[in-house]
Amino acid sequence: TWLVDPIDGTTNFLYDLPGWAVSIAAASEQGTEVAVVYVPTTHELFTARAGEGAFLNGRRLQCSATDQLALALVATGFSYQI
Q1: One digit per residue, pLDDT tens: the chain, 82 residues?
Q2: pTM flag (> 0.85)
Q3: CB 25 within 8 A of CB 36
Q4: 3-class DSSP state for residue 78?
Q5: Alpha helices in the chain (DSSP H)
C-alpha cells in the first residue's frame, strides 16, 4: 500500500511558512517498509527503511541521549478553534 501526503503541513503551506513537506511511504502486511519525506523549502530529504534506521540527506539520524525530562521535547502542536 502506498501512503502519500503531497502537502504534509497544509496550514504552514497556506501561510507560506517553511514547515511543510511531501511525505510518501510504502506499507505491507508487516507494517511500514520504507518512507521518504522531502522538505522543499530547506532541501531536506528524510528517508527510512524498516530495520535499517533513518537518515537526513544520507546522514544517519539518532535519538537524543538525554535522560532528563526537563531537557526533552515530549510533544508539540497547535490547537485550533472553529
Answers
A1: 999 999 999 989 999 998 899 999 999 999 999 999 999 999 999 999 999 999 999 999 998 888 898 888 877 776 666 6
A2: no
A3: yes
A4: coil
A5: 10-14
* Dihedral pair phi/psi, residue 48, rounded to 5°: -155, 150
Beta strands of the chain (E only): which ranges?
2-8, 21-28, 31-39, 44-49, 53-56, 59-60
Handedness of CA 62, 68, 73, 75 (dihedral sign): positive
Q: What is the DSSP letter of 72?
A: S
Cell of 60: 544517519
| Residue 50, C-alpha cell as written in the block | 524498516
63 exposed, middle or buried (CB, 10 Å; 0-12, 13-18, 19+)? exposed
